[in-house]
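Margin note from the TA: students keep mixing up input and output lines. Inputs are the sequences; the output is the structure of the whole complex. Example:
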Amino acid sequence: MSDINIAVVPVAGMGTRLLPATKSQPKEMLPVGRKPVVQYVVDELSRVGVTQLLFITGSGKTSIENHFDLNLELTQSLREDGKEELLSELAFERAPLQYFYTRQRRLLGLGHAVLQSESFVGNQPFIVALGDSIIGMHAESKIVEKMKQCYQDNKAVAVIAFEEVPEDEVSQYGIAKPKKNTGQEIFEIEDLIEKPSVQESPSNLAVAARYVLSPSVFEALRKTKPGAGDEIQLTDAIRIMMQNGGKVYGVRLSRGEKRYDIGNFGSYFRAFTEFALADEKFGPELREYVKEIIDVDSSK
Ligand code: G1P
């Protein structure tokens, strides 16, 4: 089988939990450390061999297009001003990736967003990476590589990344019922439930923003009725594929592959803090500063 090198990145969500920061800018463009969230996602995909990438956008998301375009005027002006060192910050503009954009014109859920990619994807397996989630510090994760391998080794119809979450958070995620919950890195899935209550949750393994999918998902998506939150859910479509006899696998994120979800201020602040503290140039100084203000605060 040829390599899986196309990816779909949904970025249409309104980001209401991050208002007012997201009133007139996409949440995917919020900086985490030095880069906007979505740049980490693209860097990760580029590193695992993605060559064509479709963003599923919505209104108010044009700054994402601008970000990944060449900015020749800026390059020229940096050159003229002798600011050569800053040019390297724009090297990502020249990554060997071809970008495509389409709009999800009605926000009917993640499944509906992925359905908009059908004519782009055609009849080949593809990656879905949520544009508001960074995997691993500096997005150095190779999880998608493992997922592609698992997809091919097991003739799967879907492979999903998972992470363990605390029990009281299961209702925010898609949750897996593994065939055997033996704690293994790669496991087969028997069922999936989108945003279950604690009582009905079959495990604490939560879908973690990365998928490798067979194009048969489109047929399943067309049959998918609105589910949790009255939205067309991707997990429900994958469930239909399972019911049709397709094999679905999960791959656990390893310890170093934490998921940074930029969906609310709590997780955004944590992500920003960790990335800023890890910054090569400013991290050490920031660490001292944070220590100092925490000490002053606790001595009050
Ligand atoms: C989506 C998916 C959910 C998954 C989560 C994090 O939910 O529907 O299954 O666990 O992303 O990857 P959302 O955060 O869009 O509500």
